[in-house]
Automatic annotation (TrEMBL):
Keyword vocabulary terms for this entry: Iron, Metal-binding, Oxidoreductase
Alphabetized InterPro entries for the sequence: DIOX_N, IPNS-like_FE2OG_OXY, IPNS-like_sf, Oxoglu/Fe-dep_dioxygenase_dom, Plant_2OG-oxidoreductases
Protein name as catalogued: Fe2OG dioxygenase domain-containing protein
Upper classification of the organism: Eukaryota, Viridiplantae, Streptophyta, Embryophyta, Tracheophyta
Domain of life: Eukaryota
Length: 363
């Protein structure tokens, strides 16, 4: 969650989409209307029943490493990371109450009057606070989404002025939820290491005091969902991203698979995990980050809570030696400081996987 200087960034007028639908429910301002080739194609998930993203059962990965269930699930995890870059986890061990509590306060935050939410502004060039991130010009198209983002861990990345006093228990619930997600990410990275035939503590030892941030995305209904994007296509700069979709959520997340946008149907009590750019680099491209986006719905709102988990900003990132072979799998990415990549990522608008060009070795 690096910060940028805000002095020279002019973003123009950014309409708050929740306020828009209150005052002009059937109007979509020009700045939200995408070019025809950028629009969110509304695809029925029934069309893609054969495209369900993989589901990984973490209870099976808690079994002894010689157990057949463990071996089968590790193989499934490996295939999910290599072929999809996305998977859902079930039996993840996070209590339903913890998930419901964070969802409750997130919803209450977005329902507060705009004047209250404006006390926690996302200034141009930053990625913490309330508003829209990744906007760098006055003519840049906007997403049909309101965001509230916070740095969580380590404490040095927090901006205390942006942690809201309302709704009640917001901070308490976010702290509790974030601790559970942090444990989950550490577990997942152990299993991912095992799937790569690495020592299970490999990532944790490398990451140091890992960086964790949260972003809550609120997508109000849109009278013309065929003209707008909920969230522009992008890959994540993190190592892992954990997505929680609100209960009874309509399909909004789409991932790019074989040049087709595939809708992700959320499973009850599951969390959606995706591989970030950092894991792609560390695995020398074996496990790839995947471009994804969000679309909107004509009748229904959608709320998501997204956690980004990444190495400490001081950590040097480069393909792990075990996954590089000069003849069969030469090094595809250069060495860099993770803080530099994080700064690069948040300094540019969301544009597919373009940010990863920063790390690629060009032949």
């Amino acid at each position: 969650m690096a910060h940028l200087p805000i002095s020279s960034i002019r973003v123009g007028k950014i309409d708050d989409v929740q306020e828009l639908i209150k005052s002009k429910p059937n109007t979509v301002p020009e700045r939200f209307i995408r070019e025809a080739n950028e629009r969110g194609v509304l695809v029925s998930h029934k069309t893609h029943l054969h495209h369900h993203i993989p589901v990984v059962d973490l209870s099976k990965l808690s079994k002894p490493h010689t157990d057949d269930d463990f071996l089968f699930e590790i193989l499934k995890l490996s295939q999910a990371c290599e072929d999809w870059g996305f998977f859902q986890v079930i039996n993840h061990g996070i209590e339903v109450g913890v998930v419901e509590d964070i969802e409750k306060v997130a919803k209450e935050f977005f329902e507060m009057p705009l004047e209250e939410k404006k006390k926690y502004p996302m200034e141009p060039g930053t990625v913490q606070g309330y508003g829209q991130a990744f906007i760098f010009s006055e003519d840049q198209k906007l997403d049909w989404c309101n965001m509230f983002a916070l740095g969580v861990h380590p404490p040095s990345i927090r901006n205390p002025k942006l942690w809201p006093s309302k709704p009640a228990r917001f901070s308490e619930n976010l702290e509790g939820y974030s601790k559970e997600i942090r444990k989950l990410c550490k577990r997942l990275l152990k299993y991912i290491a095992i799937s790569l035939d690495l020592k299970e503590e490999r990532f944790e030892e490398m990451f140091g005091e890992a960086v964790q941030a949260v972003r809550m995305n609120y997508y109000p209904p849109c009278s013309r969902p065929d003209l707008v994007m909920g969230l522009s296509p992008h890959s994540d700069g993190s190592a892992l991203t954990v997505l929680q979709q609100s209960k009874n959520s309509r399909v909004g997340l789409q991932i790019l698979k074989d040049n087709t946008w595939v809708p992700v149907l959320p499973l009850p009590n599951a969390l959606v995990i995706n591989i970030g750019d950092t894991i792609e680099v560390l695995t020398n491209g074996k496990y790839k980050s995947v471009e994804h986006r969000a679309v909107t719905n004509r009748e229904r709102e959608r709320l998501t809570i997204v956690t980004f988990y990444a190495p400490n900003y001081e950590v040097k990132i480069e393909p792990m030696g075990e996954l590089v072979d000069d003849e069969t799998n030469p090094c595809k990415y250069r060495s860099y400081n993770h803080g530099d990549y994080s700064y690069h990522y948040v300094s540019n608008k969301l544009q597919g996987k373009k940010s990863l060009d920063f790390a690629k070795i060009l032949n």
